[in-house]
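Sample entry follows:

_____
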Amino acid sequence: MKNSIRIASGQGFWGDLHSAPLTQVSYGHIDYLVMDYLAEVTMSILQKQKMRNPQLGYARDLVDVCEEILPYLVKNNITLITNGGGVNPEAARDRIFEVAKKLGITGLKIGVVLGDDILASIDELVQGGHELRHMETGEPIAEVRERLLSANVYTGAAPVVEALRQGAQIIITGRTTDTGLTLAPMIHEFGWTMEDWDKLAAGTVAGHINECGAQASGGNFLGDWRSVPDMTVPGFPIIEAFPDGSFVVTKHEGTGGLVSRETVSEQLLYEIGDPKEYITPDCIADFTSIHLEDLGENRVRVFGITGKPATPFYKVSASYLDGFVAFGSLTYSAPDALEKAKAADTLLRSRLRHYGLTFDEIHTEFIGMNACHGPLASAIEPNEVMMRIGVRSQDKASVERFGKEIAPLILTGPPSVTGFSGGRPKPSDVVAYFPALLDKRTVEMRAVVDEL
């Protein structure tokens, strides 16, 4: 058992800073690199891609990143763990094997975690008595079955640990929780059991700090953001973990950003409901038990974390088609910019009613005035205001007609308008989120490791 390991965050979301993984593997010592690509909407996007092309369905940026960092992973014995496999981890594995061949790398072991994608099993599950009711509305998933795009369970660290035990140097998963990516190497290296709830909770908290990339090391900092040093090459967080469950949050020397009690605290509050019960597939972590100690020099110690047993359920993240949406915008200049923009909004809505169009929702925001703060916005007279309006409807024809009514406002509405570009807004699919719970015993997770 190692005395400590260093687990570096290299990606907070699909589209995060492309240079971060290379920085993490080249600026100093790390043992693991974890990269989080997935969000609820991401899974539906990837499923659409796979439906069009069975060879797709993974985060394609992952392949480009691996081409840059593979030589460092091999040379420095760094293990990469990522959920960038989306709905097709095996295709991602095959592409990375191709990259390894191109680079002349042999002996590389890549593991894939399979079993989280339950889309093909929905009918069987429903017939077996699993109604998969929406966690907020109580609606059974059968009501949207014909419109389902994706259905994945949030799986935890256990299958990733199995892939590590089989010697995988790269592990590609589907909808593994963001926290599980960091927790898994701690379980593996320190010999923790899957019922050591306090330690699992500690690893979960470490994963929560790591999951959003530089948000824990100075990015998006709501405190004294002006004090954050040069973010040209930001230092993404690194978890320096110990067998007792304590860990230190830090970053590489020579990188920008800031790791402090404040930056870590902000990340800990991200997406938190009940702080005493942060529920994951692996355990329930009590965030009120967290202790932080600022050690200075971009090092924050985290300790004292307690946890409780895991629930018997997986959370299911499903998505389905729910109509059509389109957005359009026009910019109005001073004087009376806000008044003009509001008049244009009123006029457009009036025309839509006049034509008998049907919408489930019409939403307008005035960017430059109240788009961020809504009714709390201060009463000021801005130099310019962008009227941005969106519509949603089950009737595609209504959404299409809406798109034809934006440009005419230029000459048939209030004056001093600009900013129209990109042609007519066109309908796009609305993807709705469907969260549910599923008995863990119905899901069979497995890890498959192959060698080049």
In short: The longest helix spans residues 337-354.
